[in-house]
Amino acid sequence: MTGSLDIRMKVISFCHYLQGPACSQYLADMGADVIKIEPLKGAFERHWSGGNSWVTDVSAFSLAVNRNKRSFSVDLKSEEGLALVRSLIAEADVVVENYRPGVLDRLGLGYESVRAINPAIIYASASGLGATGPASGRPGQDLLMQARSGLVAATGGGGEGPAVVGAAIVDQHGGSLLAMGILGAYIRRLQTGRGTRVESSLFSAAIDLQVEALTKYYAAPGRERLLERGRNVGSWYHDAPYGLYRLADAWIVLSMNDAAKLAEALDSEDLRALSTLDRYAERERYASAMASVLADRSFAELSARFDAHGVWFERVQTYEDLRADPQANHMGVFSEIDVNGRAATLISHPLRYDGETPSLSRMPFYPGSDSREIMTELGLPAERQADLIEKGVVGLPRAGRQ
């Protein structure tokens, strides 16, 4: 999106895996010109796609995080390749990277080196556990940060032990936080002309995800055993029946609800008898009673009863259910793209602007998809472009798994 001044942010992205690519994809969706700098054989997400989820020869992982970007495939270990990238940086507003601390410094593309090229640059770095500190050298990956941040312990917390969240939510949140930081720095740059160094980490993102829970935990009395609870109780700090329950034909979750309303909706004498119970102090007792009342009920019956009484609930949907969800489809959550003759389902940008979701304008299926276009914009004549390609300094797109 461009404003009345026709200002378009230009982003040079040195990103792989998920956190960094997610960040730059948010920016690209919002109208930034994002140039993805990647090795001749492509970034990590082009070579791995969990669940064997490939669309022809294109990784679904890559499709998930490289929407609306341009790809420039270049050998950063060559002086000529570095010179090209430095020329791009000189004209850029933002450099964003999520390599291990020190990697870009060794290539001559660290913060101080880039700032010497472009003093007003916004240099955004995403790491695992921060650039400094006693644990900064440890591996930083979503699952590891779920564990270190307490999220795994808090998600389980019951007799069955800790539980891992079923998606890379820390990576995705880290990407959105980094994009937010870049946008804030960009506003400052427009106002003052000054660049900014923005730093984020998966560890801090995992902690930020739990800001409500952690703040409440550290303020609560007798907190040593607060996380302990049974399977039905979904949160250590909510009153029962907040949590997960099995029906005869489905699973549902119950949110925050009035006890009298629940008893009336279910026409349950057992729940009426417990309606004045302290449903936090005795959350296991209430949740157990609720589980017994719900166990033999069908979803169709309960849905009608709960809707009639204003009870907050939802059915636990599978990914297949979600794909057919009428509300998700009304909101344009999903889109499809043709990948070499095969349709792939993508997840759209999560926000709307003036009632519209940003469109998919391009997708670099292969590394180097836009190398020629970018070299032309740098002013390189065709002969020079051909020479760089022939010497292996710049790569062009090649079909097939790399």
SSE diagram, text form:
Blueprint: E1 10-14, H1 19-29, E2 33-38, E3 54-55, E4 58-59, H2 60-65, E5 70-74, H3 79-90, E6 94-97, H4 103-106, H5 111-117, E7 122-127, H6 142-148, H7 151-155, H8 169-192, E8 196-201, H9 202-208, H10 211-219, E9 243-246, E10 251-254, H11 259-266, H12 269-273, H13 283-294, H14 299-309, E11 313-315, H15 319-324, H16 326-330, E12 334-339, E13 342-347, H17 371-377, H18 382-390, E14 394-395
Parallel strand pairs: 1-2, 1-6, 2-5, 6-7, 7-8
Antiparallel strand pairs: 3-4, 5-14, 9-10, 10-11, 12-13
Helix pairs in contact: 1-8, 8-9, 11-14
Can you describe this structure?
This protein folds into 2 domains: 10-209 and 362-395, Rossmann fold (3-Layer(aba) Sandwich), CATH 3.40.50.10540; 229-316, formyl-coa transferase, domain 3. It has helices at residues 19-29, 60-65, 79-90, 103-106, 111-117, 142-148, 151-155, 169-192, 202-208, 211-219, 259-266, 269-273, 283-294, 299-309, 319-324, 326-330, 371-377, 382-390; strands at 10-14, 33-38, 54-55, 58-59, 70-74, 94-97, 122-127, 196-201, 243-246, 251-254, 313-315, 334-339, 342-347, 394-395. Helix 8 crosses helix 9 (202-208). It is α/β, with parallel strands linked by helices and 402 residues long. The strands form 4 sheets. It has a 7-stranded mixed beta sheet, sandwiched between helices.
